[in-house]
Amino acid sequence: MKRILIIEDDSNIAELERDYLKLNGYQADIASDGAEGLEQAVSGAYDVVIVDLMLPNKSGYEIIKEIRKRAEIPVIVVSARNDDIDKIRGLDYGADDYLTKPFSPSELVARVKSHINRYERLKGDHVSSVVISCRGLEINTASHKVTARGQDVQMTAKEYELLVFLASNPNIVFTKQHLFDTIWDNDCYGDVATVAVHIQKIRKKIEQDPANPELIETLWGTGYRFNS
Fold first, then answer.
1. What is the CATH number of the domain that holds 9?
2. 3-state secondary structure (DSSP) of residue 191
């Protein structure tokens, strides 16, 4: 049974999320305190973490950042903060998805299921054993391992999938809309701006000089291209 951790200080919302997840066959635990939630997230074998941003003792942003230092599991933000800057910041810290309150519990369950399936496809036996190497970058699709100039690179599921897609289709220009439709498949909050945010994060991790990228090139007014 898949295990979900809910980090939410509003007991009514947390219990609603837990009940819907249980009805759909998931085991769900609740942490109402940010510090307690982070401890559970990094010590428990969870498949997805659902986190609010405004929490006592430790913010959701801090929790996401710490989880990303230790794990690649999907992280979904559920927050009343609906400004684009909050969404972009949450994604920039390493969240895989962002859902604003009030939300549909059924939609939350659907997103949890989608992220688990996507993560398992990336980590599981369905991924063929291919190693992509280019200019000091190496991607092993069997082990889901990325190295840049000999150093291990930690990536979220979305960052990894976006990088693999571009690297598997070198020298082809893809628009932001095409990349969004391909990688997110309508399971995110629906703004193609998230593509640029993820490209920027990937560049910081793999490019020798992120300000002057050699691997992932921007073609202004068109899109992005991976240079082989």
1. 3.40.50.2300
2. coil
